Amino acid sequence: MSRPRIVFMGTPEFAVASLAACFELGDVVAVVTQPDKPKGRGNTVTAPPVKELALSRGVPVLQPTKLRTPPFSEELRQYAPDICVVTAYGRILPKDLLDLPTKGCVNVHGSLLPRFRGAAPIQWAIAHGDTETGVSLMVMDEGLDTGPVLAMKRLPIAADDTSATLYPKLAALGGEVLREFLPAYLSGELKPVPQPSEGMVLAPIIEKDQGRLDFTKPAVELERRLRAFTPWPGAFTTLGGKLLKVHRALASGGSGTPGTVLASGPDGIEVACGEGSLVLLELQPEGKRVMRAADFLLGNKLAPGSQPFAGA
Fold this sequence. Notes:
alpha/beta; Rossmann fold; six-stranded antiparallel β-sheet
């Protein structure tokens, strides 16, 4: 077919590489993104990154607050899309919208489906201790990331990867999977394959309190969750009634009653966990800067044998 007419739907920085790929692969006739939202300490109303790229390319930007009532598909119909490409848009698409493009809607999802269907696949891949993740290109249906898969690209998860470091790597991979496989799907050469029934794991939206360190859990699990929840919501505990964020930690082999300080010094603050121990390396007291454990201990004496953390 001649250059396809593409409607792109996406919102955060993660989707920008996918939109850039679409500009290469066809004529992007419209971009749909979430409404502008207040951001930062000053609550400045900020446009989504996808909108900024679209406007720089002179493409119409649509920011509906609702997709079902009135049917947003009627507004999109005027653009006569051959296909809709969706990356991290942030809403479930209704059937009338899925059925509108001639070739349907495809989605770039940040996991190896059916593992980690849902809103937070990058975070949960790290939290589960996976050593590999990737992106999937699938044809969308009405379910939550349940559509048949066209292609996958894989990426190793390094032992020190956080969501913040994995995010841009997977975003770039999303652009690659579109460049490599979307043309073959549009020409009819590439056929989608149903997802296997086994191996499905959900990746639900992250809640703030999930970042709280529960020292009754295994140290390995806490270290993974710290990396998974960086940058948000972070890992934290409470010390002296005030919030204490932990920015970097390592699992170790110490033992003791969970929450007990086993050692504290220049090499970190070692805290006993349900299994093993967690060595806190970089901390941020409430209202203060991030600091190494050695600097933190200059103003906070944590004696071995003490249980200073709330919930310990």
